[in-house]
Structure formats: C-alpha cells, structure tokens
TrEMBL record:
This is Large ribosomal subunit protein bL28. The keyword Disulfide bond does not apply. The gene is rpmB. Keywords: Ribonucleoprotein, Ribosomal protein. The keyword Transcription does not apply. GO terms for cellular component: ribosome. Belongs to the bacterial ribosomal protein bL28 family.
Length: 78
C-alpha cells in the first residue's frame, strides 16, 4: 500500500539533503498519514480513510466529507 492520502493524493517528496560541505545524498519526506473513520451525514455511512493531517484539519473546517469533495473536487479528479 502506497503512503498516499486518500483525499488529497499527497505522497512522499524526494530531494537532496545537502551538507555544509555541499555533499548531496537522497532523502524523502513522507506525509503524516493517519487512519481516520469519517462519517458522512448525506449518505449515512462511515468510511475508513488514510488521511494526511492537513486533510483532517480541512475536513474538520469544511464540516463533512460530501462538502469536502464538492469544494475540493480538483484534488480527487486528477
């Protein structure tokens, strides 16, 4: 299973770690993924999702899963 957010599609970033002597070595930054059960009042069901903490905060702000998908449809259509 890939470490990817189910709603936003966030995944790991790959780049170079650069030392003071300018030596470069590959490094990754992984998203902070949490397993969360999300209740959707429109459909009346609870869904278990792997979400980034940023997506959880946005989901709390918007209110429900249906509103999130409606407002941020550009994220999950890609």
């Amino acid at each position: 299973m890939a470490r990817t957010c189910d709603l936003t599609g966030k995944r790991r970033l790959v780049g170079n770690k650069v030392s003071h002597a300018k030596n470069r070595s590959k490094m990754t930054q992984k998203p902070n993924l949490q397993t969360k059960r999300v209740y959707d009042p429109v459909t009346g069901e609870t869904i278990k999702l792997r979400l980034s903490t940023r997506a959880i905060r946005t989901l709390d702000k918007v209110g429900s899963l249906s509103k999130f998908l409606k407002k941020y449809k550009h994220l999950w259509n890609a």
